[in-house]
Specification:
The protein is built from 18 helices and eleven strands. By secondary structure, it is α/β, with parallel strands linked by helices. It has two domains: 264 residues, Crotonobetainyl-coa:carnitine coa-transferase, domain 1 (Rossmann fold), CATH 3.40.50; 89 residues, formyl-coa transferase, domain 3, CATH 3.30.1540. The strands form three sheets. It has a six-stranded parallel β-sheet with strand order 3-2-1-4-5-6, sandwiched between helices. A three-stranded antiparallel β-sheet has the order 7-8-9, covered by helices on one side. A two-stranded antiparallel sheet has the order 10-11. Strand 1, helix 1 and strand 2 form a beta-alpha-beta unit. Helix 1 crosses helix 8. It is elongated. The two termini are 23 Å apart. The relative contact order is 0.14.
């Protein structure tokens, strides 16, 4: 990888990234964005799933045109290696000898089948750190059940919690657990690297995406453990606040959320909307009364918000200390002044899809900030460089292996 302009926190760390889809590649991209040298290893015989997943640049499908894949694999070298070819395993072992971290996101047992399980890796490099992430961990009765995050959101309980109480489950957007598990993975790898620095020993990090997802529901789990209550969908409502919802505003499909928790906030809310006659109704004077009449309350508020833009509603509410926020769409997010100030989106020139926006990490290190300098690789883009310059395979041998399909 091209050397960063300043020393990065993970500079010098070398990672062989066999991960695919979401969680694993995201974890490795965080380390790559902060200086680690990461080689993303995949196969042309069974392309990385996200390479076939839209959105595609200009709506033209192609293995190198997926913005989804690109967003999770910046700052990485990209090579192809067909691990089902008998000669590929020796090359994979070469990556083990080179790397500090081996990452994989297959169904448990897959790496063992290739002779690349943790017990095999430590024979090659005793202090290697292996990062494994899958749906339900490496052990247990359901460990080998394959699935994606879109199924895991249901297994973790999110689907049961999202939606309206009088309708069936709807689930959150997409593979929600793919946004949760990576931060656990990064923290785990930092701990493993620190342990190796202090003791000289590596270890196997087993990240269960199921358990990471369940962790986010701790208060609801505690409520069941203590009180026997099973949480279910409540729409936009909260038992401790009223009003509490998303309200329609002027414009095409524009909304603003408002949340009132205390009586002081209620009085401030009433003042902000002009102390309308209905706000003086005794049914709304207490939280209990507002909860009992919440349907009517929501209708009255929606009638008021329709006269204003979502930004105007937010400004009025926040001006009197009431929690409120615009319900942003994707266009809003790309134009968000706060994200622009924080340099959250990075624009890089991709070999096939041209200029493309990438998400930066959701955290910043003051002394060693991240740098996004390399776009995601095209399929096998760095084969010649990685196998020749990094693994040291002679040109003649490389050509022979190439002709035999080892790099397919």
């Amino acid at each position: 990888m091209t050397k960063f302009r300043r020393k990065q926190v993970f500079e010098g760390i070398k990672i062989a990234d066999f991960c695919w889809v979401g969680v694993g590649p995201i974890v490795m991209s965080y380390l790559a964005d902060h200086g680690a040298t990461v080689i993303h290893i995949e196969s042309a015989t069974r392309p990385e799933i996200l390479r076939t997943t839209p959105p595609f640049k200009d709506n033209i499908p192609g293995l190198n045109r997926s913005a989804y894949f690109a967003n999770f694999n910046n700052n990485k070298y990209g090579v192809t290696l067909n691990l089902n070819h008998p000669k590929a395993i020796d090359i994979a072992r070469g990556f083990v000898s080179w790397a500090d971290i081996i990452g994989e996101a297959f169904t448990p047992g897959t790496m063992d089948k290739w002779g690349l399980g943790y017990k095999d890796l430590v024979k090659i490099k005793p202090d290697i750190i292996m990062f494994s992430t899958c749906q339900q961990g490496q052990t247990g009765p359901w460990a080998r059940q394959p699935a994606y995050g879109t199924q895991l959101v249901s297994l973790s309980g999110f689907t049961n919690l999202a939606g309206w109480p009088d309708r069936g489950p709807t689930g959150p957007f997409g593979a929600y657990t793919d946004s949760i598990a990576p931060l656990f993975g990064v923290a785990g790898l930092v701990a493993a690297l620190d342990y190796r620095r202090r003791t000289g020993k590596g270890q196997h990090l087993d990240l269960s995406q199921f358990e990471a997802g369940v962790h986010f529901e701790a208060p609801l789990l505690l409520d069941y453990f203590i009180n026997g209550r099973v949480a279910s969908a409540t729409g936009n409502r909260c038992p401790h606040a009223a009003p509490h919802g998303a309200y329609p505003c002027r414009g095409n499909n524009r909304w603003c959320t408002i949340a009132v928790f205390t009586d002081v906030e209620w009085h401030n809310f009433c003042h902000a909307i002009g102390d309308s006659e209905w706000t003086q109704n005794s049914r709304f004077s207490t939280l209990l009364g507002r909860k009992e009449n919440e349907d009517e309350l929501d209708k009255l508020i929606a009638k008021w918000t329709l006269d204003f833009t979502s930004e105007e509603v937010m400004t009025k509410m926040q001006g009197v200390g009431v929690s409120a926020g615009v319900v942003q769409n994707m266009k809003d997010i790309h134009e968000d002044a706060q994200l622009e100030h924080r340099h959250y989106l990075w624009q890089l020139e991709h070999a096939e899809i041209g200029k493309h926006f990438y998400d930066g990490p959701p955290f910043k290190l003051s002394k060693t900030p991240c740098e996004l300098i390399m776009p995601a690789p095209c399929l096998g883009e760095h084969n010649e460089y990685v196998y020749g310059k990094i693994l040291g395979i002679p040109d003649k041998e490389f050509v022979e292996l190439l002709s035999e399909g080892v790099f397919d």
